[in-house]
Design goal:
signal; transducer; about 850 residues; binds 2-acetamido-2-deoxy-beta-D-glucopyranose; about 15% strand; single chain; ANF_lig-bd_rcpt; alpha/beta
Amino acid sequence: MLGVITANNPFKVLIYVVVLCVVPCRCGAPSENPACHLNIIETYEDYEYIKEGDIMIGGILSMNALMIDYLVPVCFYDGMLCVGALAKNYRQLVDFYFAIEQINNNLAQLPNLTLGYHIYDSCGDPRKAVRSVFQILSGTREPVPNYSCVGKRNIAGFIGDLSSETTVPIAQILTILGYSQISYGATDPSLSERITFPYFFRTVQNDESSYFALGKLLRQFDWTWVGIITSDDISGDEEHQHLSKYLYSEGICIEFTVKINDLTSVYTDHDSAIIYLSSTSIILLCGTVSLFFLLQLSHVTSVLLKKTLILSTNLGANDIVIGYDQDIFNCSLVFVPGYHYHLDTPEMRSFLANLHPLTFPKDKLLEDIWMIFHLCLSEDPNKNHLYEYIYLQRLQNCTGQKHITDLPYFTSDYSSPQVHLAVDIMSKTLHDMNMQLSEKSVKNREKHHYVHQLHQYLKTLTYNSSDGPTFYFNENGEYITRHLIYNYKFANGLVIKNLIGESSPTWKNNTIPRARCSDSCLPGFRKAPSSSAQSCCYDCVLCSEGEISNITDSTSCFKCPDMEWPNEGKNHCIARKEDFLSYTNDHISVFILSSSILLFIINLLILRVFISYWDTPIVRANNRSLSFLLLVSIKLSFLSVFLFLGRPVDITCMLRNITFGITFSIAVSSVLAKTIMVYIAFKATKPGSSWRKWVGVKLSNSLVFFCLSIQIIICMTWLSIYPPFQELDLHTYPGTIIIQCNEGSAIGFYSVIGYMGLLAAVSFVLAFLARTLPDSFNEAKYITFSMLLFCSVWITMIPAYLSTKGKNTVCVEIFAILTSSAGLLFCTFLPKCFIILFRPEMNTKSHLLGKKTLQPT
Ligand SMILES: *[C@@H]1O[C@H](CO)[C@@H](O)[C@H](O)[C@H]1NC(C)=O
Ligand SMILES: *[C@@H]1O[C@H](CO)[C@@H](O)[C@H](O)[C@H]1NC(C)=O
Ligand SMILES: *[C@@H]1O[C@H](CO)[C@@H](O)[C@H](O)[C@H]1NC(C)=O
Ligand SMILES: *[C@@H]1O[C@H](CO)[C@@H](O)[C@H](O)[C@H]1NC(C)=O
Ligand SMILES: *[C@@H]1O[C@H](CO)[C@@H](O)[C@H](O)[C@H]1NC(C)=O
């Protein structure tokens, strides 16, 4: 959208006038100021538009921007003087009478009745607005409250006003008098209270919805730290209060609020310091639009040039505000209500083409517009003099070549249909009402004043316009609109309006404004309250161990599921590392497996040697079946190492301990049996010894069987009462899940070990005692040595076992199994093998016997 902001910004000029004029003329003393000598009191007339009709609509419209009243003693007038005609507001007046004309021309609408109007300019001042209401109701210049001087005037309802400031007092009066009212611009939320204002309607939405939209907009851009500049009056306070509520609900914090006073108390240094020192680059403007508000803003121009301003609907609807300072308002965001309804019809265009001071010579405002915007002279020399003085422009004779449509507000882009809609809705309602009344009785209608029932009809009115949308007021008497957000950009005196969402916005310095108190916390961090009380200011702290946050600006971290653990960035959970001795992927496993297999092969070789030399004396000595059993059990214990590798499951956990307990029990009890056999053999060598009958396989086998069965009973009890099971240990190492076997019952485990230890200890003691006994081939000293090794391995294993975790525990166990089995294997069998293989001469009965005879005890 393109538009022209004229060089003649009436607001800017008026400020100049007020400042220049009010001060020097105040004392009534003679002055150099030419304005002080002007006397326009005789020419001044109120801005009043009247058209008589069967039914009349009252109108309180803001046409002029400013009322200079007796409280501000101005040199040239000492009563109420409205100045500052605005093209935009004139457009609203035009819409008003265009709507009335359309209805009167339409035969189907209000048949046989004409609609009239009586309109006054409120000049944006509540006192003037209230006065206008009484003027309309009395029908005279001088208002007479509660009295109509003009006979049977049928005022049905009122349209007006633009600002909340003027609308609220009118609404209070009209509510008492029972008149319905449709405002075309007041957005004050308090007007939605149906109990206080039952007859009030509006063709705009109340501010709360725009605050809601504003909150969403700020959220969208991630602007959570904003400043607010508002007017220091009741409506400014209320707006601020509502706005804060919506901002807080979106989690947006307010860095500062500055309230701008009117002329009487000047904007303090404190306030400017706040704005200068603020860190946010987004400032929201709300409150009442006034000249002084804008004037005060210019005190902080240098800082506002760096900030992006967001204007509430109130200010945004007023393009004069935006045009006031193109540098400040450049790249600002502006809220504008969006209607599904436009006035750019051919009838409207031809109506506008005819709108000229020559065709409407009595239209005072139109004349003003021509003077201000087209710089044309009027008929009235006093007025010409005043306007030349106020607007600092030379006026000239115009010949009628200027058109109203040359002004931006009279082009389709700028038209907003609030006033037209208000008049249209009221006339439709009057029509409906009239139709129902005439059905009842024509006579009644004559007497009826329409007034007291109009609001009932307005409440329930629903009608479809020809081009689609349905019009109705919601339960709060509001007409629901969309919110359009424009990004304004000034270039070469033109304003370019970009609708946010349709095109990419332009920013000051071409960078997206930043409005945050603290930088966002990345995933992996959480917000921690900082020293400032504001929730938008925070520090970012890393999530604690085991916790993650996967969104930006997380307020808290949460724990990963049990089986998962944070990744390095702490922004998502990953599966924990599993800790167990696996067959693959582990150097230790490879080492264990190869040593286990190597030992197993050695064991096999020894067994092979023993079987090959089965009948040789050295194998036969010391009970070869026990040796065989011992070899086999050692072999099994080498193989049992395989159960300790791999991911433990319940069944391997059970098998591990049982296999280990049983094979070792067999081994140790074989050793014990061997030792006992050495004793018995020694005793039996004495002639006539009663021990002789014990020599033999039977005793040794039953001994092994007996010792083994005790171990089996222990194991079975353990398994049946509290068997080992797979256990997942999540707590020992962070980020690791230790998959291990829980022994189930520690008593069971230690009973198995303890029993084995007992057997080993007994074997050791016996073997130690028997180590010097003479025998054909005394194994006792080897057994002593191996049992010593065995016991020391298992005794050292216990503290190591208790102090390690996870796969290290398993390594300790495997190490203990391998070393103790290997010790047993090597100590017991290597010497024999050595003799068998390398000293075959010693492996003869004669040698063994001879040795015996050579070594008498
Ligand atoms: C309008 O006036 C005409 C003539 O006076 C009359 O015939 C007609 O019925 C009136 N229409 C309505 C709706 O009152
Ligand atoms: C206004 O006038 C009506 C009748 O014209 C009267 O009934 C009412 O009491 C008056 N109200 C006030 C406040 O004077
Ligand atoms: C405008 O026209 C009037 C009468 O035609 C004439 O008296 C006056 O001097 C003209 N003013 C200018 C500024 O041309
Ligand atoms: C407004 O801002 C735009 C973009 O930063 C820049 O191009 C333009 O010149 C500015 N206009 C004025 C009037 O400063
Ligand atoms: C963050 O994690 C939660 C829980 O794991 C999950 O539901 C959510 O989808 C995640 N959000 C993102 C943005 O990854």
